[in-house]
Specification:
The strands form two sheets. Strands 2-1-3-4-5-6-10-9 form an eight-stranded mixed β-sheet. Strands 7-8 form a two-stranded antiparallel sheet. Helix 9 runs parallel beside helix 10. The chain is built from twelve helices and ten strands. The protein is of the alpha/beta class. InterPro entries: DUF7730.
């Protein structure tokens, strides 16, 4: 009975079935999020609104989403998932940057290019398959978790993943991108986002090796309020003690299965790190060097590698120049020329 609804598909060899399922539901970056709010207008109604056709999952920017909430219904926890469309059809690395992902902010401009004749192209569309029969569920759910890169931008959700997902699903995940919005250089204050302080940062670092035991690829972007003060050397000392040394400990605890670990940090954190690594704090006049986003190598301390508790074979990890959180001033070497030669000033 477990295969009663699998039809002729069950006659295909397992390898071919898996290839088909991967083509349909795998080898993508998919968003995973959960939020507490009123239910949003059902998809079959959003499809009829021409003003929503260009937005990711047919939802406008967050500041405009309130009009689509069914406020007469009580608030509840709601899963949100979709296929990531941050990367344009040009395929260049400039457009495939996790920390600038704007899919769930409703600001993504690329969905219209990816969308085919179906208005639901932003959705994974796997639920009908999963509920068709037991074998379809077993094979489909494995492809969903093990062949996709899971993108998570909600630190509270990440900290509660053991309560939200079965351990078997977490063990299936091979590739993950996470955006952590934090404030690490000041005390907590009223109004701070939950799970954004130093204690949450350490808890997240402690969780990752145990949370994803079969991980192959790890990407973390540290974002938020991460501005330290002082000279470049003083700022590096603060950054090393607060961020880099805890990151070293996390990387040393990763499974031997992990092949790459990349960390993105905002400009204000990256500048003193680059200055210490190269002797030059400037950010260069182009974001991309040889089609690789600007980065510096962080080698794990050899003394620590020889100590107990080291499970990884990684010699270190790349630190990427991440979210822009500082004034870009070409007069002092922090130039960041766009293709048109304009300079940006962003304070966020």
């Amino acid at each position: 009975m477990a295969s009663a609804n699998y039809g002729l598909f069950q006659l295909l060899p397992y390898e071919i079935r898996r290839e088909i399922l991967m083509y349909a539901f795998g080898n993508r970056t998919v968003h995973m999020d959960i939020r507490y709010d009123h239910p949003v207008m059902p998809l079959d109604k959003r499809i009829l609104d021409p003003d929503l056709k260009s937005y990711h999952v047919l939802l406008p920017p967050q500041r405009q989403q309130r009009r689509l909430l069914e406020k007469r219904k009580p608030k509840k926890w709601q899963w949100q998932s979709s296929i990531c469309h941050r990367k344009g059809h040009s395929g260049g690395p400039m457009f495939d940057i996790p920390f600038y992902d704007q899919c769930h902010d409703g600001e993504n401009v690329w969905c219209g290019f990816w969308r085919d004749e179906r208005e639901t192209s932003c959705f994974i569309g796997i639920m009908g398959w999963l509920v068709s029969c037991r074998r379809a569920y077993m094979e489909g759910i494995d492809v969903l978790y093990s062949t996709n890169t899971i993108h998570m931008a909600n630190t509270t959700m990440i900290r509660n993943l053991p309560r939200l997902l079965p351990a078997q699903r977490l063990a299936s995940i091979r590739s993950v991108e996470m955006l952590w919005n934090l404030h690490l250089f000041r005390a907590d204050k009223l109004g701070d986002a939950p799970d954004s302080g130093t204690s949450a940062f350490h808890a997240l670092l402690d969780m990752i090796p145990m949370l994803f035991p079969n991980l192959r690829k790890l990407y973390i972007s540290l974002q938020g309020e991460l501005r330290s003060v002082g000279t470049l050397d003083e700022r590096y000392g603060t950054v090393e003690a607060t961020i880099l040394i805890p990151l070293d400990a996390m990387v040393r605890s990763l499974s031997a299965n992990v092949q790459t670990c990349d960390i993105a940090v905002p400009y204000t954190v990256y500048v003193p790190i680059k200055h210490r690594a190269t002797g030059h704090p400037g950010l260069g006049n182009r974001r991309l060097r040889n089609k690789v986003w600007e980065r510096v190598w962080r080698e794990l301390p050899h003394v620590a590698l020889e100590g107990a508790g080291c499970t990884t074979h990684l010699a270190g990890f790349w630190i990427y120049r991440g979210f822009q959180d500082m004034c870009v001033d070409p007069a002092v070497g922090y130039s960041d020329l766009s293709e048109e030669g304009d300079y940006e000033i962003i304070w966020e």
